[in-house]
Design a protein that fits this description.
By secondary structure, the protein is of the alpha+beta class. The protein is built from five helices and eleven strands; from the N terminus they run H-H-E-E-E-E-E-H-E-E-E-E-E-E-H-H. The radius of gyration is 18 Å and the shape is globular.
Length: 188
C-alpha cells in the first residue's frame, strides 16, 4: 500500500505536496530565510559566471551551460523586487525543476547561501500571510516554523512561472544557436 501512496504523491501537483509535511531546502536571500520543497530541487552548484542575454528582464542574471544544456539563471533577490546583491563565496545556484501542467523547465536560482534541508511537519506550516509580506503573496505556499522561527515556503511554480519565463529559455537557446552557427550554415 505504501508504494501506491508514494506513486500517487509523485503525481500530485507541487502545491499539494507542499501543503503536507515534507523536506525543504532552506536558503538565504537578502537576509531572509526561504524554503523550497526538496522534490523541486535537482542539484546545487557553486556560483559560476553567467552569460548575459540582451533584452532580458532585470531578474534574469543570464544563462549557464550545465553539462551541455542551456539553463537560465534567475536572481531571486531581484525577482522579489529587491536590489541586486554582490556575489560572495557562499553564493550558489540552486537548479530547480519548474513545472506547469505538462511543461517542465530547469532553472538556476541564485541565492546568497544554502542553509540546510529541514523536515517541516504539517502542524508547523501556517497559511501564507494575507498582509505584511515583503513579496507577492502568490509566491508563498506557507510559513514553516523551524526552531521558533518562520521560514517562507516558496511556490516554485509561481516564483519561476513557466508562462512568465518560457520565453527566457527560447531566447537563450536562440542566442546559443546564433553564436554556434557558422556563416552560410543558415538557409531560408
Amino acid at each position: 500500500m505504501s508504494a501506491l501512496i508514494r506513486s500517487q504523491r509523485k503525481m500530485e501537483p507541487q502545491e499539494r505536496q507542499a501543503a503536507r509535511g515534507q523536506q525543504y531546502l532552506t536558503f538565504a536571500v537578502t537576509g531572509e530565510v526561504f524554503g523550497v520543497a526538496i522534490v523541486s530541487i535537482k542539484e546545487i552548484i557553486e556560483y559560476r559566471a553567467t552569460t548575459e542575454v540582451p533584452m532580458m528582464p532585470e531578474f534574469m542574471r543570464g544563462i549557464i551551460n550545465l553539462r551541455g544544456r542551456v539553463v537560465p539563471v534567475i536572481d531571486l533577490a531581484v525577482r522579489f523586487g529587491r536590489p541586486r546583491d554582490e556575489v560572495t563565496r557562499r553564493s550558489c545556484i540552486v537548479i530547480v525543476e519548474a513545472r506547469q501542467g505538462t511543461e517542465q523547465q530547469d532553472l538556476g536560482v541564485l541565492v546568497d547561501a544554502v542553509s540546510a534541508v529541514a523536515e517541516i511537519p504539517d502542524a508547523d506550516i501556517e497559511p501564507p500571510p494575507s498582509f505584511g509580506a515583503k513579496l507577492r503573496s502568490d509566491f508563498i505556499t506557507g510559513m514553516g516554523k523551524i526552531d521558533e522561527k518562520f521560514v517562507i515556503l516558496l511556490d516554485v511554480s509561481k516564483v519561476l512561472s513557466i508562462e512568465d519565463l518560457s520565453t527566457l529559455g527560447d531566447i537563450a537557446q536562440e542566442r546559443v544557436g546564433a553564436e554556434s552557427a557558422t556563416p552560410g550554415a543558415a538557409r531560408g
